[in-house]
Amino acid sequence: MQKTALAACAAMLLAACASTPPAKHADAGNGGASRAPLFTDDPYPSTYQRVPSAPVLITGATVLDGKGGRIENAGVLMRDGKIVAVGANLDAPADAIRVDASGKWVTPGIIDVHSHLGVYPSPAASAHSDGNEATSPVTAQVWAEHSIWPQDPGFAAALAGGVTSLQILPGSANLIGGRGVTLKNVYSTTYQGMKFPGAPWGLKMACGENPKRVYGSRGGPSTRMGNIAGFRAAFGDAADYMKKRKGAQDANKDGGKRDLKMDSLAGAINGDIRVHNHCYRADEMAIMLDLAKEFGFKISAFHHGVEAYKLADRLGAEGVCGALWADWWGFKMESFDGIQENILLVDRAPGGCAIVHSDSGEGIQRLNQEAAKVMANGRRIGIDTTPEHAIRWLTSNAAKSMGIDNVTGSLEPGKMGDVVVWNGNPFSSYAQAEQVYIDGAKLFDRRDPKLQPKSDFMLGQDLMQGEAK
Fold this sequence. Notes:
Elements: H1 2-7, H2 10-13, E1 56-64, E2 70-79, E3 82-87, E4 97-100, E5 105-108, E6 110-115, H3 154-160, E7 163-168, E8 176-184, E9 202-206, H4 209-215, H5 224-250, H6 260-270, E10 274-279, H7 282-295, E11 299-304, H8 312-317, E12 321-324, H9 342-348, E13 354-356, H10 367-380, H11 387-390, H12 396-402, E14 419-422, E15 433-438, E16 441-445, H13 461-468
Parallel strand pairs: 1-4, 1-5, 6-7, 9-10, 10-11, 11-12, 12-13
Antiparallel strand pairs: 1-2, 2-3, 5-14, 7-8, 8-9, 14-15, 15-16
């Protein structure tokens, strides 16, 4: 039985077998001469390598392209890890694997913009509860990727739900909790083997109740005004840090000791690191937008945002996404004024960018059903949303907020072959992901036990449970 379980990971093991590319420590425009490290140099670069596959032609399906299009009786052709063509009557090479998807639906892979898999893994235990560095209100120097446990069984469960990419964020105890990282949902021994090549880091920030609750008895902040003062002090320090380093660089002098906390904040001000802001109330979101203008950074998305509907027009006008739950509300005071139409109203505003996120090791397995709840709530008030539009909440909008929409999130030629074949309309409560492709290789098949991966942690658990019984 153990050999059978090991076989379930065989195809995905190849994703961990890459050499580490060199870190960027030389300026190619300066003859390779050494230079001061940049704010976003990566000493822990991705080692991800796609699993090799023959060309794949999926035919006969209802295709939702992730950009608002729907094509009936159509197909998707993937080759060398990329999407080559989408449409009807596609030609394929003689060696292509042909998948008859008649009566089925095909979508881009689901992307979860807010996950804690690997940093708060299953089973929940204090021994590997590593999502919050709750030692200071500002811990911008920590990186969530250094807490990720690749053996978390939640990754495989998410894959079975059609999730092909996900952003792992620190928790929300701190004003600034550290950098998040984007992963490809593949099996690997190390997190670098999962790390999405070229994806920007996110910077996790949190306003509202959490920071003042955690630090109110530990030196502060203990109020919302203390929260804002803490943000302003941190970004003020970062602006000064940037000015000093630039002055030293212009004078061809040593910029002094690097400050890893300031590096992350400076990266956000420069726009190289994307700000993802945990924030519930509309008034606080408005304050955070003004604070961002004060210090010259941009908020990519407000997360959770149960009152985002109250300033949906401003979010749309300023190009800020709302990464939201379908119907979570009322579990604390700042979440009290949530409504089930929140995502719909953010989506309908001019320029609106609505995203369905999980923040849950269980919810990530059924994000398609979370989006379906939003559609159903809309119908009850006379707002109909087509499947070809709703799929954007799970794919292209999430990719946009994470800065990876140029390579994934939609079914377009040249983009990554991240594709899900569903047994029917993905917004049905009966929908299941039957096949999941990442970079053109089938890594999950509901009908093939060899392509239902288990983490190393899970291997042998069924035997032990059987013996216990």
